[in-house]
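Write out this protein's structure.
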Amino acid sequence: MSEEMKACPICKSPYGYASGEKNYTCPECNHEWNPIELEEELRVKVLDSNGNELQDGDAVIVIKDLAVKGSSAPVKAGTKVKKIRLVDGDHNIDCKIEGFGSMGLKSEFVRKA
């Protein structure tokens, strides 16, 4: 069993201790939680324009022409983008587009391929 302590997600006490194989218990507020399940619950879901959940490594298709700063040509609708990476922020997709290089896209302007 691990001797590692984890902070309680309820009262933020740093003294949460392992109780059982996968659970932790807080000695201050007596809250019991599973850190793996908690992490999955807190994970932000990124949805495409059709409401499909996107994941790292997915391929997407741009659904409308998008202007690119520093370039005279837009990213055209129908452009396929492979191996996306999900990130936090306004532009929640990092990717490389052929002819443009690395850039950030908003998930609302793509659909899952």
